Amino acid sequence: MSYLDGGNSEVLTRQSERESNARTYPRHLPFAIREATGVTVTDMDGNEYYDCLAGAGTLALGHNHPRVVEAMERVIDEDRPIHTLDISTPTKERFVDSLFESLPDEFTDRAKIQFCSPAGTDAVEAALKLVKTATGNRSVLGFQGAYHGMTSGALGLMGDVDVKGTLPASTGEVHHLPYPSNYRPPFGVGGEEGHRIASRYVRNLLADSKSGITDPAGMILEPIQGEGGSVPAPDEWLREMRRITREHDIPLILDEIQTGLGRTGETYAFEHADIVPDVVTLSKAIGGGLPLAVVVYDESLDVWEPGAHAGTFRGNQLAMAAGEATIDHVVENDLAEHAADVGRRLREAFEATAERFEAVGDVRGRGLMLGVEFVDHGAEWQGPGPHAPDGDFAEAVQAACFERGLVVERGGRGDATARFLPPLIVTRAQVDEIATIFEEAVAAVAAERWEVTA
């Protein structure tokens, strides 16, 4: 009998024997997925789970959505090309049409698009090369807590020094600026005053000839820091970053790789602040679950020579068909508004859990991009925020959720934030069940901790 005819344990054993030690998710989510539909996945042992990881936010319409499946089948049934490098096809042009129509007109009226190698980090690398080529400058302004991918240039932008410890030396000059947070404010104060201080810091830094910062090629930021713990940027602060970058002729790059296409309650997260960026990086949801990454940018930056940026798999036609179907479905069915509605419902449930358990330090996010941070009130803590992040508690909650049929991821400081990225098609009834499972998991871990420490 093949190990594939066995259960989870047989497949996981073979995986650990053959895959790199760098594998991550199976260490905390010890199962192999046999089938998946909509918001749920079923493992090799027949157990069903709500999937609030959803390919790290990739599956906007969930698993095997009929419209996406039909679009891919049409490409194959009609003998359309599967891979075309950057040669155009009707499939590609329809994808671009749908993508541009989903973005604000004031952005796309002057926009160009670059197809990259298919991961989000490839779009970030392309965006960095774009602005450095256009401006002739080398340094980049990034932000503390940021995550933009795992390739060399993207790693250089990362705020997590533990992860970037193996970073090659040739990543270029990056200046990490404070990212505003109500719960862990970089200057010790949150709210409106906190983000105004953070804005003033950036404004003064760029105006100071003694700051040590050379003219930047660009500023890159996430409208909501995803891996950083689901930390949303205040709208007013985003507007100020746009004003400051315009004043200094610094291209503003918005990383919408995880936030883009309806997840935050707007089609794109920067629309909450009503700003127009110079560059947007997109991946994950825009490929309909298949690998696809693009950079959309203002035409004034389009000074590349032919062949200046390439990538063999930038012509994935199945991904473009799936992406077109996904974009159209999200827009036609106003799934951004749906995400705002059910996301609000889910957040309110988490806030009710926070009132019951002091281990929950903060509930935050926007739409269906939510985070619940766990803290240790008794631990010594000298960092930002009132309490030390409790990664052990969060890990135990993740495991308790998994045992009860709920898949969640962790992120943020100390991996202490439970992160929720369910498909945008999740229903009100399903988010109620997700919230119930989560609260039961928190209660179980809290009871165990209380019994141990009592």
What is this structure, in a nutshell?
GO terms for molecular function: pyridoxal phosphate binding; transaminase activity. This protein has helices spanning 8-18, 25-28, 54-57, 66-77, 90-102, 105-108, 120-135, 152-157, 191-207, 235-247, 317-332, 335-356, 391-403, 428-453, and strands spanning 33-37, 40-43, 48-51, 111-115, 139-143, 174-177, 216-221, 224-225, 231-232, 252-255, 279-282, 294-298, 360-366, 369-376, 388-389, 406-407, 409-411, 417-420. With 454 residues, the protein is α/β, with parallel strands linked by helices.
Q: According to CATH, what is the class of the domain at 68-332? A: Alpha Beta
* The CATH homologous superfamily of the domain at 68-332: Type I PLP-dependent aspartate aminotransferase-like (Major domain)
Find the CATH topology of the domain at 68-332: Aspartate Aminotransferase, domain 2
Strand content: 15-25%
Mean pLDDT over the residues: 93
Question: Major sheet, described briefly?
Answer: 7 strands, mixed
Q: Got a strand count?
A: 18
Which residue ranges are poorly predicted, with pLDDT under 50 across at least 5 consecutive positions?
none
The CATH architecture of the domain at 68-332 would be: 3-Layer(aba) Sandwich
Find the structural class using helix and strand composition.
alpha/beta
- Lateral arrangement of strands in the main beta sheet: 4-12-11-10-7-5-6
Distance between the termini: 50 Å
How many separate helices?
14
Helix content: 25-40%
Shape: globular
Give me the Rg, rounded.
Answer: 22 Å
